[in-house]
Amino acid sequence: MECLEDESCGRRLHMTFTRCCSCESLKKRLPFLQWLPRYSLQWLQLDLIAGLTVGLTVVPQALAYAEVAGLPVQFGLYSSFVGCFIYCFLGTSKDVTLGPTAIMSLLVFVYTLGDLSLAILLAFLSGCIQLAMGLLNFGFLLDFISYPVIKAFTSAAAVTIAFSQVKNLLGLQNIPRQFILQVYQTFRELPSTRPGDAILGILCIAILLALKWMKDHTSRPYRSMSICHRICYLIVWIMTTARNALVVVGAGLVAYSFHVMGSQPFILTGKTAKGLPQFQLPPFSEITPNGTRTFSEMVQVIGSGLLIIPLMGLLESVAIARAFGFTNILGSFLSSYPVTGSFGRTALNSQTGVCTPAGGVITGLLVLLSLGYLTPAFYFLPKAALAAVIICAVAPMFDLTICKTMWKVKKLDLIPFFVTFLLSFWEIQYGILAGAFVSIIILCYPIARPEIKVSDMDGLVLTPMSGLSFPVMEFLKDKIYEKTLTVSPPRSVTLDFTHVNVIDYTVAVGMADLLSEFKAQGVCLSFSALQPHLLRMLSSSDLLGLQNLHSLKTADPVFAQDSEDESTQPLLHNGIVSLP
Fold it and tell me: What is the DSSP secondary-structure string of 362-429?
């Protein structure tokens, strides 16, 4: 009876433990279950403030970033709300906001050239790739993109994006999108500058910079301050935080005033599609003037964008790859182009005191309200004002001060930095690929050419200072030949493997070849301080004739082996293996 009761109690404990494990697993997969039960009214107030603040930044930036992507402005808003809702359920950080960014918009234009069907399909395929990377833990691939490469890429992208908006800032027409041609044609067309656009654009930049300066230099109110001071601080805080929306709305009102008076000195955004996007499948084919383009042809046109855009989208955080993947997949059904985490809006979200990812829901609702009721007003938005918003948004991304730090820390890092920075002006996608390639070469060089110390006090000893992999074999052979077999008379040598904790098949075969050559020359090649796991591996492989070494107690400082024919067996004394 007692046994039955014990067994029943054990089953109950096991079931309770299983339920707890299942609950924890579910919370890990759906992070909103961790904070939702503890949600309070105070959190709601702070999330509401943060959501509205970020929303007032998202709307004007989304309109501007669609221009960078070469798409109608409403598609910037279509791309801005899906991530807000998805991340509320799958997000692990309260601060991160998903949506269109300047760099992602630039990359979308590079690979789609403003083709709407390609942009939406790219969002779907990027989401699938990001989701697969998250599920298969392929985030380690991003570890091979070094920080200097990322900084060089973002700095070059900032210059490219900012200069691409000069044409809108000055009201210039027929300017190509390729950077070098763009610079040439922009300076050539300067006499055609429209005064109205130029004055408005420069004025908008000046206002944005002034408001940013005010925000950076306005101290927080103290409790001892009067109500008037607190109200003044609140007004300044709202104006400086929502400066993008303030400038765009103000410019739109100015343009509308000129329209009412019967003149229009600005180039306007023009007619914008009304309402919310339709829920429909991403385009897996499209009709072009040259006929129907199939799915495989569309994929071929996108090309390397299927690698670059998913990777760039995950640079902020691989840990939330699932959120990025779901956002891009679902967003493609709502006419979104690829999105990622925004560093600027994430910082703003944190500064405004957001408590949970629910703040993104408020931002998403504000974007939906804009799509539902404000799209007719977008007609009067001057392109010069949107250009000013973009230029001021990307300007902080340009940072060459890192070069000074790299010069002090490791001068070699300047090579991938400048390779990335300069090539990005030719083709932005080639810049980051070339920079990553150069970084990998710099990373692999010490593996192929490790430091080898030479000692010739009590006999010739060569000591590799790191593990030995296949790229090093020819270099190691040349080093051994130089010191032993090419001299007269040939010399014996000991390889000290104190610092070697890994070798591969190529190295083992190379060592076997060396043993044969040394034996033919009548000299000895010895191995000192072989680690136990290397001894076991070499003995089991029989490449060096060490087939019986697995029976040795390799943990002992002095090794010995019994053999019927000692002339045919390897000798292993005091940690040294040699073949007579």
Answer: HHHHHHHHIIIIIGGGGGG-BHHHHHHHHHHHHGGG---THHHHHHHH-GGGHHHHHHHHHHHHH-HH
What are the percentages of helix, strand and coil residues in the chain, rounded to 5? 65, 5, 30
* CA 45/CA 354 separation, integer angstroms: 9
Answer whether 507's CB lies under 8 Å from 470's CB: yes
Q: Rounded distance, CA 574 to CA 571, Å?
A: 10
Q: Which of 424, 473, 430, 427 is nearest to 452 (CA)?
A: 473
CA 275, 279, 280, 286 torsion: positive or negative?
Answer: positive
Judge whether 218 and 237 are in contact, CB under 8 Å. yes
Q: Yes or no: say if 87 and 96 are a contact pair by the CB < 8 Å rule.
A: yes
Bond prior to 338 in cis (omega within 30° of 0)? no
- Give the integer Cα–Cα distance in Å for 211 and 38: 37
Rounded (10°) angle between helices 414-426 and 402-409? 150
Quote the CA–CA distance of 496 and 420 in Å, as a whole number. 40
- For residue 212, give the 3-state DSSP assignment: helix
The DSSP code for 547 is T
Q: Which two tokens stand for residue 521?
A: 């020359």
117, two tokens: 């069907």
Q: How far apart are CA 367 and CA 62, in angstroms?
A: 9
| Structure token digits, residue 234 | 């609140």
**Do 507 and 473 contact (CB within 8 A), yes or no?**
yes
On whether the CB atoms of residues 93 and 386 are closer than 8 A, the answer is: no
- Beta strands (DSSP E) in 485-567 are 493-496, 525-528
Q: Give the pTM.
A: 0.79
How far is Cα 391 from Cα 165, in angstroms, rounded to an integer?
7
Q: Which amino acid is at 252?
A: G
Question: CA nearest 212: which of 58, 348, 77, 99?
Answer: 348
Distances (CA, A) of 356 to 41, 48, 346, 366, 401: 12, 10, 13, 17, 34
pLDDT tens-digit profile, the chain (580 residues): 444 344 455 455 445 545 544 666 676 777 778 888 888 888 888 889 888 888 888 999 999 999 899 999 999 999 999 989 988 888 777 888 888 998 899 999 999 998 999 999 999 999 999 888 888 877 777 778 888 998 999 899 899 999 999 999 999 988 888 888 899 999 999 999 999 999 999 999 999 999 988 888 776 665 666 777 777 877 888 888 888 889 999 999 999 999 999 888 999 988 888 888 999 999 999 888 888 889 999 999 998 889 889 888 877 555 566 778 888 999 999 999 999 888 788 888 887 778 888 888 999 999 999 998 888 888 999 999 999 999 998 888 888 888 999 999 999 999 999 999 999 998 887 888 899 899 999 988 888 898 999 988 878 899 999 888 889 999 999 888 888 888 888 888 888 888 888 888 888 888 888 888 888 888 888 888 888 888 777 776 666 655 444 333 343 333 333 334 443 334 443 344 544 3
Tokens (6 digits) for 39: 């949600």
End-to-end CA distance of the chain: 73
Specify whether the backbone of 132 is left (phi greater than 0), alpha (psi in -120 to 50) or beta: alpha
